[in-house]
Queue: 2 jobs
Job 1
Amino acid sequence: MTKKLVLLSCLIFLSFTAAFAAVKPSTIQDGWIAGFGTTGSALTVAGGYERAIDNRSSVVLETGYGIGNNFMFAAINSSLRYKLKTDPGKWEPFIGIGINYSDYSKKVTEVPGINNIEKGGAAGIDILVSITRDKIGLDLGYDSRSGLLAGWRIKL
């Protein structure tokens, strides 16, 4: 029984290895990114740098600034993104997870997806789904510190 499990595990591993070896060349290009959208109940602008790790994944470091109704915040975020499908010239889906630090100028109440945000700085975790085509991307996600987020970005 143990030999069968080992053989089955090896076959599964080889199948995944063959599948990933057949992936088309990367469409992830290193470069500066800029974007805007909403985070919680604030309008935000952000900028950063994306660095390809391999043909499907990248790491992104970005900083942003948001303005809401009687409050402001600044944030820095580091995330790992993974491309689910590689198809140059068409919309390509991504998923991402990151850690961030944001500093709010005052307590904010009734924020979509999180309810209240305390004044001051705190760390959070964010998850993101996005689609990209060429140099344009659309993002939708959730940040444990700031609530729901949505926006678009462009590779400069």
Job 2
Amino acid sequence: MSDQKNACVIYVVATENELPAVKAELEQNGYAVCAVLATTETARKLRTDDNGIPEAIKSCIKNSDLCVFLIPDEDEEDGGIHGAAGLANQLGKRIVGLVSGSRTTYPEGFDTAGAMIRISSPRLSSVLQGEDTWEAADKTAIEDRSIHHQKCQ
């Protein structure tokens, strides 16, 4: 049995420039990295079909120990991140959201993320090693975050 840790990185076009640095940080922390682009086309398919997650994203998530999502600054640039986060949640994967810019609202499916920090956060290495932390836009830790769930009828 291998001791290799695997990380899946899901990114969108707006966060593609951040990928090399995040990938390098993961590799420095002992992860083999699979990176997959979540496109706007994926998002359109997911609105009409729950099975619209591309096989490359499914495989990357299923074979990972850690799922890292590069979340863009603007909501409308989220691409297929929602469906991928939902799948990671269903499979019980640890989710880390790395947020670009000063965004304060997050895509659906991230309320169970172990960590939600800025891409440039000094906490990145400790989060990749398992620390659960949520940060505000100014990179200060959020001590008590509330999660608002809707009750099923």
